[in-house]
Automatic annotation (TrEMBL):
Lineage of source species: Bacteria, Pseudomonadati, Pseudomonadota, Gammaproteobacteria, Methylococcales
Gene, per the UniProt record: mdh
Catalyzed reaction equations: (S)-malate + NAD(+) = oxaloacetate + NADH + H(+)
UniProt-listed PANTHER family: MALATE DEHYDROGENASE
Superkingdom of origin: Bacteria
Organism (species): Methylomonas denitrificans
Protein name in UniProt: Malate dehydrogenase
């Protein structure tokens, strides 16, 4: 058996983690020959619920689990971890302003960024899922000066998968036939789901669908899918978010398929005119664990306007927490 790999999950008693942990424990991320240590972080009021989740994990007798550690101390949770799923965040309560949400979550990601900086593996792969994901990742980067910004990403993989699924349904093909969709910008309703480079069995998607479908149906469906799930299911996306989180990390660890890309929010290197340092979703490829923004894609005026709109929104989010950076 290989040496165990340490994986941290925050918000471990929450609903996304209730799916994520069982997928991780069954070897879906790193394979059936890779033992793992799960390091689960929660806040004290959720500790009892977390104990219940651990009882269930134990009841599965997963052969790949070497140890499960539960804690409310980020330094214990992140000790020497290679992978960190930052799922835990404070939800927006009734009457709460977006600016209050940003501030409350900023405190969480300041603390966790500092703890990662102190104790995580220097090659840690961090995925921020907790919202507002892009800005939370920016805060973590700013509080982890000894870790490369490349260690941090935020999740737009669920949006990416939603886009693939919408195209597959519209074109009457399988999801695996759809390639090169892209999510640009913020993981918010402002995001730009883009089909200008997308292909179905080698054909341009935009030559197969009406332009009005792309603009009036596809884009808002992907942008507001999370809201729609809440309306229909009564709770926010959980299993699909957990699946997307595993997929994001799996691609980061093992690479993108030849000829295809995925969407990840990463610190901008200035590509497409997006201010350097902003955590922004781009189409990316991954080779040998290195994430690279796909360069040189043509963007028309429609697309560029949406990219700028996302940049403005992310700068506003950054402005709201700037005094904490
Ligand atoms: P839940 O409210 O079910 O779970 C969140 C958990 O985080 C709770 O158990 C809470 O006690 C814990 N928590 C709060 N503060 C913490 C801290 N400082 N340290 C450790 N744990 C802490 O939410 P869930 O449905 O699991 O969603 C988690 C986050 O994912 C939310 O912010 C949600 O908005 C976000 N999402 C992001 C998505 C994305 O694509 N980026 C999609 C799904 C989801 O909406």
């Amino acid at each position: 058996m290989k040496t165990p790999v340490d994986i941290a999950v925050t918000g471990a008693a929450g609903q996304i983690s209730y799916s994520l942990l069982f997928h991780l424990a069954s070897g879906e991320l790193l394979g059936l020959d890779q033992p793992i240590v799960l390091r689960l972080l929660e806040i004290p009021p959720a500790m009892k619920q977390l104990q219940g989740v651990v009882m269930e994990l134990n009841d599965c007798a997963f052969p790949l689990i070497n140890k499960i550690i539960i804690t409310d101390d980020p330094k214990v949770a992140f000790d020497n971890v290679d992978y960190a799923f930052l799922v835990g965040a404070k939800p927006r309560g009734p009457g709460m302003l977006r600016s209050d949400l940003l501030l409350d979550n900023a405190q969480i990601f300041i603390t966790q960024g500092r703890a990662l900086n102190e104790v995580a593996s220097r090659k840690v792969k961090v995925l921020v899922t907790g919202n507002p994901a892009n800005t939370n990742a920016l805060i973590a980067i700013n509080n982890a000066p000894d870790l490369a910004p490349e260690c941090f990403t935020a999740m737009t993989m669920l949006d990416h998968k939603r886009a693939i699924s919408q195209v597959a349904e519209k074109c009457g093909v399988l999801s695996r036939d759809v390639k090169n969709v892209a999510i640009w910008g913020n993981h918010s309703c402002t995001q730009y789901p883009d089909l200008h480079h997308a292909k179905v069995k080698g054909m341009d998607v935009l030559s197969l669908v009406e332009h009005s479908w792309f603009v009036d149906e596809f884009i808002p469906t992907v942008q507001y899918r999370g809201t729609e799930i809440i309306k229909v299911r009564g709770q926010s996306s959980a299993a699909s978010a957990a699946h997307a989180a595993i997929e994001h990390m799996r691609v980061w660890a093992f690479g993108t398929d030849p000829g295809d890309w995925v969407s990840m929010a990463v610190a901008s290197d200035g590509s497409y005119g997006v201010e350097e340092g902003l955590v922004y979703s781009f189409p990316v490829t991954v080779v040998d664990g290195q994430i690279g923004i796909v360069k040189g894609l043509d963007l028309n005026e429609f697309g560029l306007a949406r990219l700028r709109q996302n940049e403005v929104e992310l700068k506003e989010e950054r402005q709201a927490i700037k005094h904490l950076l």
